[in-house]
Amino acid sequence: MRLAKFLAVKNVCSRRDAEKHIVQGNVVVNGQVINSPVFFVDDNDVVSFCGKYVNKEIQPKLWMYYKPNGEITSHNDPQKRKTVFESVKQKGLPRVVSIGRLDINSEGLILLTNSSTLAHELETTHLQRVYKVRAFGVIDDKKLSKYAEISDDMSEIILKNIVISGIRYMPIRISIEAKQAQPSISHNFWLTVAITEGKNREIRKIMNFIGLQVNRLIRIQYGPYAIGDMRPGEINECLKSFAKNNKLCSG
Fold this sequence. Notes:
Layout: H1 3-9, H2 15-23, E1 27-29, E2 32-34, E3 47-49, E4 52-53, E5 62-67, H3 84-90, E6 97-99, E7 107-113, H4 116-123, E8 129-137, H5 141-147, E9 148-150, E10 156-159, E11 162-164, E12 167-169, E13 172-175, E14 187-195, H6 202-209, E15 212-222, E16 225-226, E17 235-238, H7 242-245
Parallel strand pairs: 7-15
Antiparallel strand pairs: 1-2, 1-3, 3-4, 5-7, 5-17, 6-7, 8-14, 8-15, 9-10, 10-13, 11-12, 13-14, 15-16
């Protein structure tokens, strides 16, 4: 494994930052200072970073964080906006990576882990993400007739085969209270939306595609992990990880 990737996997720092530290001579392998990112290590090598030995065995941990509106899911922001990782560091968490993202105007459940391996497992499993969505507008009947399967009482809609700007989206499930279903005039109403991909601004784009403008978006569940009654800014540790033990953690 490349040395920079090894440091990232061990959650020392990002791969990009690791490469910078290597060039600066801050990484030592088996007593030798390494100056080139093109260097490979295995579990038999002894690695130190900035004078501290890198622990080869990391116990994967998982946390749920209620991201408030206004924070960005990024380690570095050129615009100096508040980030999720700054907030959780102030609350005592070690260096963590996020499993999926939420944009600055969205809130709710973010999963955080100290293991990039666990993050990759959860992101690539296509676990269902569930959102509460407040939207404004009138649903386009023509779009529904072309792309949707609809329950008899209009309380559930499954959108399929949608392509927006050349991007194809997997089926998306929308639940709406029967008394609100298919409003005849524009007004705010709440939906529950379930997706399995989480592409960039997916829900906002699809809602706009069918005639709705999203004005609030809250992720309430990611796979078996539910936000429950957590409040913005709150963190809960999941003592068991779904990837290994199929245990559910809720707020």
